[in-house]
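Handout, page 2. Input:
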Amino acid sequence: MANKWVYNFDEVDQAEKYAGDWEGVRSLLGGKGANLAEMTRIGVPVPPGFTVTTEACNAFLAADNKFPEGMWDQVREAMSATEKKTAKTFGDPKNPLLVSTRSGAKFSMPGMMDTVLNLGMNDETAQGMIDLTGDARFVYDAYRRLVQMFGSVVLDIPDEAFEDPLEEYKEKKGVKLDTELSAEDWKELTEAFKSVIKKYKGFDFPQDPYEQLRYSIEAVFRSWNGKRAVDYRNAAGISHDLGTGVNIVTMVFGNMGDDSGTGVAFTRDPATGKKEIYGDYLINAQGEDVVAGIRNTKPIDEMKQELPEAYKTFEEICDKLERHYKEMQDVEFTIENGKLWMLQTRDGKRTAKAAVTIAVDFVDEGLITKDEAVGRITPNQVNALLHPQFDFDAQKSARDDGKMFASGVNASPGAAVGRVYFDADTAEIKAKEEHEDVIMVRPFTKPDDVHGMLASKGILTSEGGATSHAAVVARQFGIPCIVGAADLKLDLKNLKMEANGIVVKEGDWISVDGTTGEVFLGQLPTKMPSFEEQEELLTLLGWADEIASRDGAREGVDGSPTKGLQVWANADYPADARRSREYGAQGIGLCRTEHMFFEQERLPIVQRMILADDVDERVKALDELLPYQRQDFDGLFEAMTGLPVIIRLIDPPLHEFLPEMEEVIEDVATMKAKGETEGLAEKEALLSNVRSLHESNPMMGLRGVRLSIVMPEIVEMQVRAIFEAAADVKLRGFEPKPEVMIPLTGHVNELKAIQPRLVEIAKEVMDEKGVKFEYKFGTMIEIPRAALTADEIASVAEFFSFGTNDLTQMTFGYSRDDAERNFLLEYVEQGILPVNPFQSIDEDGVGRLMDICTSEGRKARSDLEVGICGEHGGDPDSIELCHKYGLNYVSCSPFRVPVARLAAAQAVLGK
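Output:
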């Protein structure tokens, strides 16, 4: 049977039978063609027409831009059917049928591909239309539009070749608006536009309507691979092999007089989600006049007075379309001599706020279920609602005015405005002492930059990727951040930066959009959403929690139904814990004790402890630190009363708490060169200690459980602080649930060497304080060997928490920072890796280890609690895998908790 390349709008049943389902129809006919056919099927007034399929487009492109066999004959047959429905004939001078060709891919790509209007007009049909309508101005306006669009869209003639003569002509005539030109003016311009085609292409504008149609279909097919369409698909994640349909639609004219018009509207407000028709229209105009801004449009609400009958019909159709598609619709329409025609419907693009409001309202109106509502909202939409945002119009104007300075990786969402400072100390001083809004700009950040980062409204780096230090810290604390802005040239000596020939100096204002990765010059207005005030979001996330916690949400390790994932948070301070709980976290999955050591009043004590000559001196320093640690934990336990709090014992190598070796060497050399002796001995001793702690590969050296075994007094102090704080909180009437996590275990014997002593301390403290409370000791799974010997480790550890950042590093053998800087992004671009494994869990490698570890661990300890606390804990794709592997929870930064709650529910729904 020959391929069917063309479907009339009333043949949607045939298309559905061939394609299998509605998604298949959308793939076959494209979104626009499918919806035109569907509107025809449900009785909405659509001008007659037909669609050339996406399969024909792909065949055309594969055959070096040649129509597939039989397609053109089917186009002519479909045109004959359209002629019968309209009682007009394509190319007939006395009663001409005019059509448009419009692109339409499966997924909406507004403005990315080509459209041509008024096909079928030529010198003879123009005269015939004048005889029929008695309106020469209307006819020649339509004719010049065809010649202009045909030249620019189909023949690739520069727009200026048509726009410049038009502007010159209007200037000569002393008019400003197109509407002020007469029939003779448009006739003269039509001839001028024909001359442009002759000049650029060497042949005349085609008078044969079928030649015009052939050219136009080819142009729409070719536009699928046009640069703007390819760039859009890359940005939107749309596949390049879908192809576009071509919709040939009978022309209807909104410029036939005061009982005619055209407009574009949404069935609900796309900015707020409010249930009211929102859009623009024009009387006596064609569709592109609205879209192109040629004339000032009117709010759609005014159509009630000007064209009441048409508006009433339009209102009824909007309601019908919403109920049919169960979605807010974006529609185009034309009114010709009082008759309303629908030219397009599609799911309307909307803000994050509108998306949530519409989903909740649709549930209340009985159009969709709670499950469907939760499935419709994307994690990015929830993310956008929780961070400062730039005013939409102001941001668009900044782009249009050339104020976009640079762009990079959108590492942490939100909007920030501030003055530029290039080092952490200055950033902190300017923010805390001078109360300035600061954007800290660095090539990259290090742990000792944290104080400046926390003081800043936003962070911008010229190097690094989405899991670099800057990105991780920024997401943890909800600071808008852009990393890897490669166009930036930083001159730290002269305190300035340059991009695209523009120089920004220290103290200058910039605006950073961590959601889009864009940097703007100057101050853009921002708005800060309140989580508690977002009633619709709270409602939706409540539904999400219900879904995630359903009995039987997934299969347990023994095959019995169990509940889905909980969402916990990573929080180092009480303020983070309170925010986490406010955002719906059901526990703290990671409290990093070492972050507390970096605080300025504590760091000297930490350094004294590290540099101690003997254990007694080290214990003395640790005794000074204990009250600080106890105070930190006290606030956490109080904020999270009744919920588990996992505290990770010291993890990083000790050298991270000391000055950089190069810095100390430089200090010693400078003192010697100047002959300074005071303090030199101390500096030289410091240098000796820094050198002794230096390791070739510190991330795989003396850290985590290894450090705990070599210097047990450090973790003994930490465990005492944890349990003293928990006991104090318990005595105040709260319910602490501490869980102590020993990091970097690779062998069960490491746990056996250190954990019993820590358990003893826990019991000692509870006896001393005269209280009892629940507690656990567990370990962080970061080393592949630990995952593969999980049954042995679970004989000691009461819980596992996957540290997926290090587990990914050790599984791939990558140094994360080096990999992202040198080759990882290129790997992803070339398709060597499907995604950056530090952003989404590598299912085949890291994921398999997690699956084995969870399964084997629970064979040894059936009630083993398993979670994840790495950066992946806030990634929706990774959360889906955690659900699949049967984890109990995911833990992420407080600002990602609502996103993770949605993702956990969508994992249950299979979204």
